[in-house]
Amino acid sequence: MVSPILSVASLATLAMAQDVPWSGFDKWSHNSYSSLGSKQADHLPWFMKNNPLPAGKPWGLRNADTNYYTDYPITGVVRSYDWEVSKQSCAPDGVNTTCLLVNGQYPGPAIEANWGDTIQVKLTNNIADEGTGIHWHGILQKGSQPYDGVPGVSICPIAPGESFTYSFPAELYGSSYWHSHYSSQFASGLNGPMIIYGPNSSSYDIDLGPAQLTDWYHEYYEDLLGNLAKPLSENPQYPYSKNILINGKNPYDCDYADGRDCEQAPIARFNLTSGKTHRLRLINTSAESLLKVSLDGHKLKVMANDYVEIQPYETDVVTLGVGQRTDVLIEGKTSSTQGAYWLRAVAPHDCAANDGQNVGKAAIYYEDADDSQLPFSSPNDGYDNSDCFNDPLEKTVPVMALDPGEPGESVDVSMEGHSNGTHGKWWMNNVTATVDYSDPILLRAKMGYTDFPTQRNVYQYDSSVDSVRFIIKNNNGNSHPMHLHGHNIFVLAEGEGDWDGTIINPSNPQRRDVQLVRANGFLVIQWFQDNPGAWPFHCHIAWHLSLGMIIEILESPELIHKDVKVPSTVSQTCRDWWAFNEHTPIDALDSGI
Ligand SMILES: *[C@@H]1O[C@H](CO)[C@@H](O)[C@H](O)[C@H]1NC(C)=O
Ligand SMILES: *[C@@H]1O[C@H](CO)[C@@H](O)[C@H](O)[C@H]1NC(C)=O
Ligand SMILES: *[C@@H]1O[C@H](CO)[C@@H](O)[C@H](O)[C@H]1NC(C)=O
Ligand SMILES: *[C@@H]1O[C@H](CO)[C@@H](O)[C@H](O)[C@H]1NC(C)=O
Ligand SMILES: *[C@@H]1O[C@H](CO)[C@@H](O)[C@H](O)[C@H]1NC(C)=O
Ligand SMILES: *[C@@H]1O[C@H](CO)[C@@H](O)[C@H](O)[C@H]1NC(C)=O
Ligand SMILES: [Cu+2]
């Protein structure tokens, strides 16, 4: 079957992870290491102060109750980045492999902006034989739709040797990340954090910044995909991750490196200050793994999910699906025994395919701790529990309240994993989708076309439909983190079996941009049609996405034709791609995204 996930009794993973080699060193400036999670990492500010405005918050009187979908500041400040993507060997956890890096770093550079700034990124593709394209996860792209950056949907891939400049407003605020949306490139390191400073209703003293959490593989993504996408008769292999990294760090036990080049590598670290409240931004950039995050001896107070701040609640363990973010507050202890603790990110075997180390750890030091020693704290109860779903929706109440109302249109969507006769595939409403790199649907809709081949799986809702509800039934034994571009979705209900019609917190349901649907369970989502564009709705597990688990939503096609702006640089990506493809035809291994 497509996903013979789960089951593998792996190497003695826990014991391995407790036992990491450590020499107290903290190198970060070479071999792809970024300074995130190192001694050199700075705490983040409350907001960026280098503004033309005289003083005060750049968003003026707007606060956490302001409806950010209809009212965001325009500061006039442009935050510019110049990035170069390259394919090179790297060893973030000590094992030598092949990565896709931006400016030589993994994780890639962090984007920082204030709410209402414009983010501008010039990307140069220096990969010799692959296209690329960056997606800014969770950004709505109202008025800047092509910069959503999905090759074959909103733009063509950026061809080798070419540059392209993305430019879009930071219209939401909070914690997120950027990642390649070209095939499964993001599984080989092409991602990094994106922090947008804005109002807060919970208060904190210190912003520890991002904790980017990910599963990690010791093979290049094309090799993993090549083995996965083989005909069933040739025994395809589902990719198993080898490690869990925190800010790109977590040394691998070289005794288990199967004879590969393996060396010592640094561990991520953070400082806590006693008596202070700390904000930590958990970002799940996994390809596949669901993660359980906990801090030994501490509670975590959840204050935001994705780009939506919520009424805070306490928990011992936070669950993150791929693409999900959760901002937590950590109260610094005040007793005399502050010491050192482990932050843990566990990929439970029931919810993730891993046959190496399945616990990522970062060292957390109070000011009284000896930071040349590793912590020896014990995990919280339930830190590795196997519930492959998010916290109950009852607990997650957005600070800025919005009522979704009744939907203009309601659609049943089924999800399956089965063969197409010869190859394993993932299906949504009986279609396993592929994109066409050379023919993005947004650009086609801009020209007034609305007919698409079945395998694009295009669902169109014109502007007379004010909101759309998807009632999703997962007929499959895996959970899937479902992501919609261009919107924060209302999450009306999720659970086991079939939906009984109950909506949780109906006048102010949870909103976010990724939500897990359980194995054999249901998920009911809804969104306002307030953003004409081409928006993929897909499973965020790289390997499921690659095998077709995609619906392409064309929102208000007549308004795309009339209003959406397509800069000439966007059409140029297609001319460059066609030219490249003519002499180097790309043999797509997968759905394309
Ligand atoms: C954490 O504390 C250590 C030891 O005092 C110091 O060297 C390091 O720079 C601090 N890091 C941060 C991010 O404050
Ligand atoms: C990593 O592997 C590459 C490709 O096999 C090789 O060229 C490089 O020298 C290796 N690096 C290290 C540090 O072993
Ligand atoms: C937001 O956080 C800042 C920094 O901790 C704090 O000074 C401010 O009081 C917080 N805002 C609210 C409404 O709590
Ligand atoms: C990231 O998401 C994946 C897919 O849902 C999940 O398996 C993994 O546990 C998540 N990781 C974390 C750290 O939450
Ligand atoms: C099944 O999938 C393979 C690989 O994508 C493809 O080549 C083949 O044409 C598909 N078969 C059918 C019947 O669509
Ligand atoms: C999908 O196929 C099944 C089995 O043939 C059929 O019962 C169902 O109606 C189809 N669903 C859609 C949306 O076409
Ligand atoms: Cu999936």
Could you walk me through the main structural features you see in this protein, from its secondary elements to its overall organization?
The chain is mostly beta strands. It has 3 domains: 8-201, Cupredoxins -  blue copper proteins (Immunoglobulin-like); 213-395, Cupredoxins -  blue copper proteins (Immunoglobulin-like); 409-569, Immunoglobulin-like (Sandwich). It is built from 6 helices and 30 strands. It has helices at 13-18, 221-228, 441-446, 542-546, 557-563, 568-583; strands at 78-90, 97-102, 111-114, 118-125, 134-136, 163-169, 174-180, 191-197, 206-216, 243-246, 268-272, 277-284, 291-295, 300-305, 308-315, 318-320, 325-331, 340-346, 359-366, 409-419, 424-428, 458-461, 467-474, 480-484, 489-496, 510-512, 514-517, 521-528, 533-539, 550-555. A hairpin with a 6-residue loop joins strand 1 (78-90) and strand 2. The structure holds 2-acetamido-2-deoxy-beta-D-glucopyranose (6 copies) and copper (II) ion. One 2-acetamido-2-deoxy-beta-D-glucopyranose binds at residues 213, 284, 286, 289-291, 293, 320-322, 345, 347, 351-352, 481, 516, 541.
Q: Roughly how many Å is the radius of gyration?
A: 22 Å
Indicate the CATH topology of the largest domain. Immunoglobulin-like
> Please, how many helices?
6
CATH architecture of the largest domain: Sandwich
Largest sheet: 6 strands, mixed
Domains, number = 3
Family: Belongs to the multicopper oxidase family.
Pfam families: Cu-oxidase, Cu-oxidase_2, Cu-oxidase_3
GO molecular function: copper ion binding; oxidoreductase activity
Domain Plastocyanin-like: 85-200, 213-354, 450-557
